[in-house]
Amino acid sequence: MTQPTVIHLVRHGEVHNPTGVLYARLPGFRLSARGQQQARAAGEALRARPLATLFSSPQQRAQETAALIAAARGGCDVRVEPLIDEILTPHQGRPLAEMEAAGWDLYTGIPAGYERPVDILRRTQAFINRVRAEHAGQEVAAVTHGDIITFMILWASGVPVDGADPGDRFELLVRLGLPEVYPATASISTFTYSSAALDAVPAFSYLRPY
After folding, report:
1. What secondary structure, in 3-state letters, does the chain show?
2. Which of 9, 41, 138, 161 pairs as cysteine with 52 (C-beta 3.0–4.6 A)?
């Protein structure tokens, strides 16, 4: 491979959430006015990048973010990709205050049929591997969600995604160089693969473009 393969994982912009619930895969959650500004900032940061294609999670907030990124580039197609969808959790619809009081632990003791960190990482890497095969030596961007990005960052840094409570994960992200404890809305996490080997570990960089 003469050129690296570069994959930008963009978190969607801030969401209009007046009732303060964990929206997860619930329908009808759009970007706030501030989230639209954030998405435009991400679009400006990516405008000069030679993107071969732009992907989006199926969620409304992600597709709106992707559309604003596409508009910053003068328009381009957006490919909806289920593998980078929001996590499947039994906690969706619960008050954010309740989740904060529980330390943002979305995974301990959840029933069968819902996703755990290793499940999320597995499908994210399936997407990444397909992109690496289809767009070797190119750059792509994909609008997705915070935990999808978090688990990719931890994996790329050699940190197991299971076995640590959320507080430990938040601390780890800061130690790994993030300026915040969780990927910010409309932040860009870039994974650069310099080898075509299937087990290659990418270099990682992070940008909050506003």
Report:
1. CCCCEEEEEEECCCECCCCCECCCCCCCCCECHHHHHHHHHHHHHHCCCCEEEEEECCCHHHHHHHHHHHHHCCCCCEEECHHHCCCCCCCCCCEHHHHHHCCCCCCCCCCCCCCCHHHHHHHHHHHHHHHHHHCCCCEEEEEECHHHHHHHHHHHCCCCCCCCCHHHHHHHHHHCCCCCCCCCCCCEEEEEECCCCCCCCCEEEEECCC
2. 138
Q: Where are the domains of the chain?
A: 5-207
- Where the chain has pLDDT below 70, the residues are 1, 163-164
CATH of 5-207, one of 3.20.20.80, 3.40.50.720, 3.40.50.300, 3.40.50.1240: 3.40.50.1240
Q: Is the pTM value of this prediction over 0.90?
A: yes
